[in-house]
Amino acid sequence: MADFQTPGSKALFFESKRFLSGGVASSLHKSAREEYPIFIDHAKGSKLFDVDGNEYIDYMGAFGPMILGYSPQVLNDAVISQIEKGTHFALPTRSLKELCERLVDIIPCAERVSFQSTGTEAVMHAIQIARAYTGKRKILKFEGHYHGWNDEVRISLTGSSAFAMGPRNAPWRIMSSPGQRQAASDDVLVLPWNDTELLEEVLKRYHHDLAAVISEPIMCNAEVVLPKTDFLKNIRLLTQKYGVLFILDEVITGFRIAYGGAQEYFGVTPDIATFGKAMAGGYPISCVAGRGDIMESCMNAAGTFNANPVCVAASLATLEVLGDGQIYTQMSKVTNALVSGIQQIANRHCLRINCGGVVSIWFMQFGSGAPLCDYRDHFDKVDKNLYAKVYEAALMRGVRLHPSRGRFYVSAAHTMEDVEKTLDILDLVFDDLERKEGTVCPG
């Protein structure tokens, strides 16, 4: 820890601010608490190496895409081979046909697919498809669920308190950016997640004008919240009952928690689903998949770089590797070892923690130690200030966590050696916290 220095990163950040708005290319690259982010020189496997020569075990995976780890040779070979043939033609290729066939075979809801370049674009197209097919205009989303940064659905992602979110049975639509138009979200309804009774009340009232319900299968872009038993199946049943489409946003969970994504893992088949991130192991491609008649109702999937051959090659190579089910077994093993180890260490240091994981996604939340049921729970049950201290102390010792919330990823490249080193580091971090925070073990 005493040797941890990042003068190169600091200098690069302040130089970048002269030309780059905010000094970073994405607001997620630096938390509000950080003076500057680390600048990366290169990465390999489960490790990042910054411009100052520091090495980190990385549990962010570029916010999800790097499911095979950094710079895997099989992916590099596939991409280089395609680059030698050409990077972009604005015409279809044989490899695109092969990718479509593969996706339809893998994804339970898929009879047709449509391609975009980002998760935001995929969600925009999925909503457009739902409106085209149903002839209805309203969309229902859940508090804390992130479906991209476009004006319409970038609402009720965060709030200062549960009170500020509005009444539970009729939440207010809270904008996320000063540049957003309030009117852009006029056709969006918002509800707390994991509440079947409240969902049915709203569907009963608005189904005549409601095109779709959109949901993450696991709330991942706020503090992690797992679905209650059968909640996703209840969404499926209720949307069918009231003639509303069900869009499952699998941009994060797709190919991460099972080969067939959350649909396979939870045993629920939506009408439409969106995918991205892990789909191509770090290359920018996304897709919408769904029932044939629904997908054919809206063909406006324009985009200069949609399904370009480099990203298609990366996706085919990634899916080929993931098709070996042993990779999911290995990632589950790593995740389970991290979760159980962290829980034991936290208990020993008298820190209340809610720690869990699903295959290659894991989380830790300091505070009450109780599981969360919806986004509003985090106001009372999660100590974000304590988490910020853990993040900073872990980074200084060579473990990179999420800069602002307790959600992380493992990849096919993570090893049990990584786990052991991570647990040793977190033991030191938690020991410091126990002494500084004055925590007392019960009894």
Explain what this protein looks like in three dimensions.
- The protein has helices at residues 7-16, 73-85, 94-106, 119-134, 196-206, 231-241, 261-266, 292-295, 309-322, 326-348, 378-381, 384-397, 416-437; strands spanning 40-44, 47-50, 55-58, 112-116, 138-142, 188-191, 210-215, 245-250, 272-275, 286-290, 353-358, 361-366, 399-400, 407-409.
- It is α/β, with parallel strands linked by helices and 443 residues long.
- Helix 3 packs parallel to helix 9 (309-322) and helix 12 (384-397) crosses helix 13 (416-437).
What do the pLDDT scores average to? 94
Annotation, overall tally of beta strands: 14
H-E string: HEEEHHEHEEHEHEHEEHHHEEHHEEH
Q: Structural class of the helix and strand makeup?
A: alpha/beta
Q: Largest beta sheet, briefly?
A: 7 strands, mixed
Rg, Å, rounded: 22 Å
**pLDDT below 50 for ≥5 consecutive residues: which ranges?**
none
Helicity range? 25-40%
Please state roughly what percent of the residues sit in beta strands, choosing from under 5%, 5-15%, 15-25%, 25-35%, 35-45% or over 45%.
5-15%
N- to C-terminal distance = 33 Å
Strand order of the largest sheet: 4-10-9-8-7-5-6
Tally of DSSP helical segments = 13
Q: Rough shape?
A: globular
